[in-house]
């Protein structure tokens, strides 16, 4: 019956919680043993085969069914008392028949293979009106004296396959949700930070084709160029999955900069840790934020400028109010004296005319002329300052001789010199220069007038003119009362009068006008002074070519 040199192992399946569980029983071990033991083994085998709760089939290499037990018949809707099918072809869906013999050939060629559970779906179509999925587990190749036999267990796995199909559909839904998600997502293996999957939005956002990023380091794809929070390298198993979110500056495949809001969570698949990255494109938002920031900065600058301008206007208005007040005070003081003199001299003059006292008439006429001249000078100062500040004074460049200019200026200055005062001048070279002669003369006369006013009678005023290749230097010195050190920083301010000059007539505008004249000619003015010893003013003017 069986070869006496063979060990036959029959593998069967019992149902443990609806899961097939393989058990192996040695039913025959004959090494030249007696017929009695063989018969006993056959009886054990037959009892086991007939009473198994699982469907079992034994067939030969032609597919002819040698034996089929009751549960197998019931599974294929065959009455227990009905004749058994002749060939396994009657039980197997034809589209799986070739696969069955491929498995049988593999088992025949490798009878000692450890793979004892070659499974084949043999029916997944309605069987007698019922939808079912039947699986055949080919578990043994049996060698007999008459040829090869194959034993198999058949199990109804309809419910299991329903669960598998449900799981497959769920996985397909998850895959579709991932791929078609409108938010960019990428799956990164935690161990080496390589990309294992990426959805369509991620590919379109970064400009890649499907499959192009798989296996690449995520840093290579994202091409980060801005500051970024470092992703933790490891994640402890059992730890609550934490979500991390922060902004990331990166670049697309073609190098275009984009900004994304990056978040990621840890996931595990078959005990392998992964990170699911979600990337939201916030480039437009960041651009809008930057634009808003720039607008705010520009607005702040405008507000600061307007505030500064308003402060300047307020300061200017305050200065103007102060100027008006000082003007009124100065005008009241400076005008009162000459006007009083004129009024008094006019009244006396009438009396002396009647008395025909020509000497005294001439004296008072001289006093009237002097007072009128003083009033004229005061008014000239105010008018000159107003013209300069309103831009009405423009340089008029002409060519003139320097010596002639000096002599004319001294001639005009002699009209306001005190008794016994005289002016000396020195000129190193008589040349013709290009400059505004009128503004230059007004500047010089103003300084000569101050030198005379603040010096004693019989004093000497020194005026030196020095010509260099690119400039002319004018130095005017006196031996007068000088300027106190504390007052020197303010000497060019409008209406400023040094404390030792308050008893001397003046508006406090002369040096302010001089400084503005010098600036109109692009020159510089400086001075050196010692109280009670005198003052020297130095003027430097460029010589236009």
Description:
By secondary structure, the protein is α+β, with helices and mostly antiparallel strands. It is built from eleven helices and 19 strands. The strands form five sheets. The chain has a five-stranded antiparallel sheet with strand order 4-3-7-6-5. A five-stranded antiparallel sheet has the order 9-8-12-11-10. α7 (283-355) runs antiparallel to α8. The chain is rod-shaped. It starts with 6 loop residues before the first strand and ends with a strand. Residues 1-35 and 227-242 have low confidence and may be disordered.
What tags apply to this protein structure?
five-stranded antiparallel beta sheet; 545 residues; single chain; alpha+beta; rod-shaped; disordered N terminus
> What percent of the residues sit in helical stretches (DSSP H or I)?
25-40%
- Please identify the structural class as seen in this structure: alpha+beta
Q: N-to-C SSE series?
A: EEHEEHHEEEHEEHHEEEHHEHEEHEEHEE
Strand order of the largest sheet: 4-3-7-6-5
Shape: rod-shaped
Quick summary:
The protein has helices at 35-51, 70-75, 97-109, 158-180, 200-206, 218-222, 283-355, 358-389, 402-413, 437-453, 510-520; strands at 7-16, 19-29, 55-60, 65-68, 118-123, 134-144, 147-156, 184-189, 194-198, 244-251, 257-269, 272-281, 398-401, 422-427, 432-435, 460-467, 471-477, 524-530, 534-542. It is α+β, with helices and mostly antiparallel strands and 545 residues long.
């Amino acid at each position: 019956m069986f070869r006496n040199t063979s060990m036959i192992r029959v593998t069967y399946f019992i149902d443990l919680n609806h899961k097939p569980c393989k058990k192996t029983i040695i039913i025959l071990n004959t090494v030249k043993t007696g017929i009695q033991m063989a018969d006993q083994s056959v009886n054990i085998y037959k009892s086991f085969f007939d009473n198994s709760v699982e469907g079992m089939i034994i067939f030969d290499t032609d597919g002819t069914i040698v034996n089929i037990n009751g549960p197998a018949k019931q599974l294929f809707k065959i009455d227990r008392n009905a004749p058994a099918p002749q060939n396994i072809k009657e039980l197997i869906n034809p589209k799986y028949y070739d696969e069955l013999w491929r498995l049988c050939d593999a088992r025949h060629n490798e009878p000692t293979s450890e793979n004892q559970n070659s499974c084949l779906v043999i029916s997944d179509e309605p069987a007698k009106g019922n939808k079912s999925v039947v699986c055949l587990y080919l578990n043994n190749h049996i060698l007999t004296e008459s040829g090869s036999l194959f034993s198999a267990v058949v199990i109804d796995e309809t419910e299991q396959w329903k669960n598998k199909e449900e799981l497959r559909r769920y996985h397909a839904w998850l895959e579709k949700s991932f791929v078609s998600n409108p938010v960019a997502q990428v799956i990164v293996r935690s161990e080496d930070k390589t990309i294992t999957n990426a959805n369509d939005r991620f590919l379109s956002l970064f400009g890649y084709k499907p499959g192009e990023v798989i296996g690449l380091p995520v840093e290579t794809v994202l091409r980060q160029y801005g500051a970024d929070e470092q992703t933790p390298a490891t994640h402890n198993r059992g730890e609550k999955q934490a979500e991390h979110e922060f902004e990331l500056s990166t670049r697309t495949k073609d190098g275009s900069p984009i900004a994304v809001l990056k978040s990621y969570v840890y996931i595990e698949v078959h005990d392998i840790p992964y990170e699911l990255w979600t990337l939201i494109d916030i480039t437009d938002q960041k651009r809008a934020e930057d634009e808003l920031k720039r607008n705010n900065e520009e607005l702040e600058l405008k507000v600061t400028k307007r505030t500064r301008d308003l402060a300047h206007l307020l300061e200017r208005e305050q200065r103007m109010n102060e100027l008006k007040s000082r003007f009124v005070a100065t005008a009241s003081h400076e005008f009162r004296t000459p006007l009083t003199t004129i009024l008094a001299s006019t009244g006396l003059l009438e009396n002396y005319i009647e008395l025909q006292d020509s000497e005294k008439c001439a004296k008072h006429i001289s006093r009237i002329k002097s007072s009128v001249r003083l009033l004229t000078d005061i008014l000239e100062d105010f008018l000159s300052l107003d013209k300069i500040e309103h831009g009405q004074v423009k340089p008029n460049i002409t060519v003139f001789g320097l010596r002639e200019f000096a002599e004319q200026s001294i001639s005009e200055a002699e009209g306001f010199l005190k008794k016994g005062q005289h002016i000396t001048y020195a000129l190193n070279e008589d040349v013709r220069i290009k400059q505004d002669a009128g503004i230059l003369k007004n500047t010089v006369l103003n300084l000569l007038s101050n030198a005379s006013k603040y010096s004693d009678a019989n004093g000497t005023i020194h005026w030196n003119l020095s010509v260099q290749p690119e400039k002319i230097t004018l130095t005017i010195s006196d031996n007068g009362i000088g300027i106190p050190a504390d007052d020197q920083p303010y000497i060019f301010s409008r209406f400023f009068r040094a404390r030792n000059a308050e008893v001397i007539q003046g508006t406090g505008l002369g040096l302010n006008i001089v400084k503005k004249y010098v600036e109109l000619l692009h020159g510089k003015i400086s001075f050196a002074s010692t109280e009670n010893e005198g003052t020297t003013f130095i003027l430097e003017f460029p010589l236009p070519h």
